[in-house]
Amino acid sequence: MRKLAVIGIDHRHIYGQLSGMIGAGYVCAGWWTEGEPLTAAGFTKRFPDVPRVGDRRQLLDDPSIDLVLIAGIPARRAALAIEAMDAGKDVMTDKPGCTTLEQLEALRATVARTGRIWSVDFSERFEVPCVEKAAELVAGGAIGKVVQTIGLGPHRLNRKTRPDWFFDPAQYGGILCDIASHQIDQFLFFAGASQAEIVTSSVGNFTNPGDPGLEDFGEILLRSDQAQGYIRVDWYTPDALPTWGDGRLTILGTEGYIELRKYVDVTGRAGTDHLYLVNGQRCEHIDASDMPLRYFQALADDISDRTETAMSQAHCFTVMELAIRAQAEATRLGRLCLQDAS
């Protein structure tokens, strides 16, 4: 029996992290979190048989546990991951896996020293079936060579459900470090790139004057040696949309293109995971909702075999470095610009 532990449940992404690894054959030996985050009720409802412990060292010192899942406050995730790896555990953390370059360098050093796996669950790729289908089509040459991706990550603010740390950039890392890490991951993956240049980036607060620490808009232009990428993320999802965000990804190739409408099709088709393929022979809609997800089982196998099939460690580090650098270098717009001027 393979065991894992959960340390930090401040973000609801922990539900998908844990469900995915249970599906890959793991049993959760226990969970710990600091205080009483708003996610606690949802966690215990979904996983009623998992015991809560009062001291995380009880879990970290258990030699039968080989994996730790982390979804604490973003700025604290790196320290928890380092503690877990120093205790001999592999780690899967929610995005962002860290919020500063100093944290990232400490993580790199810990991985090098301990030989443990540090994996970030970029859920907008790893937990979305239509992205798996797109990967299959691109790998099969359906659209030729990828020359650009356009990744859109709109989100609903849901103000009443947000904790205080959500409005503090020192705690959540900023909108590009946080949300846009998803789209950076997808760009590098589909472009087949090991590195990219940040051509330009910006962040802004346009609609939330009462929350000066909130960035409600962000964008990045990336360039690799063979492809370009545009990213836009925001907290503007209108209430009429029947889900939290109309996340989309367009992959442009030399012989066609793919568009993913991941969570909703506003033109009226029911369900999720809508894929549109256009090339020299095909112009069609594909329901990709039954496409199997591979990340969780691949990570479980990597832990057993000490391989990198779920995601290379270098890729994971590069995504977070680009996200942090894009955040740090971003031009400040809207009310953020006015704050700086004052």
Give a quick precis of the structure.
This protein has 342 residues and is an alpha/beta fold. The chain is 35% helix and 25% strand. The protein is globular and about 55 Å long.
Can you walk through the features of this model?
This protein has helices at 13-23, 40-46, 56-60, 74-86, 101-114, 123-126, 129-139, 169-172, 175-178, 180-191, 295-305, 313-329, 334-341; strands at residues 2-7, 26-32, 65-70, 90-94, 118-121, 146-154, 197-205, 217-223, 228-234, 248-253, 256-261, 274-279, 283-287, 331-333. By secondary structure, it is of the alpha/beta class. The protein has a nine-stranded mixed β-sheet. The chain has a five-stranded parallel β-sheet with strand order 2-1-3-4-5, sandwiched between helices. Helix 4 links the parallel strand 3 and strand 4. Helix 4 packs parallel to helix 5 and helix 10 crosses helix 12 (313-329). The longest helix has 17 residues, at 313-329. The chain is globular. The mean pLDDT is 97.
Which strands sit side by side, in order, in the main sheet?
Answer: 13-12-11-10-6-9-8-7-14
Tell me about the largest β-sheet.
Answer: 9 strands, mixed
Q: Name the quaternary structure.
A: single chain
Broad structural category: alpha/beta
Contiguous runs where pLDDT drops below 50 for at least 5 residues? none
Apparent shape = globular
Helix content: 25-40%
Between the first and last Cα atoms, what is the distance in angstroms?
A: 59 Å
**What is the string of helix and strand elements?**
EHEHHEHEHEHHEHHHEEEEEEEHHEH
Instruction: Give Rg in angstroms.
Output: 20 Å
Mean pLDDT level: 97
- Percentage of residues in strands: 25-35%
Instruction: Give the number of DSSP strands.
Output: 14
Total DSSP helices: 13
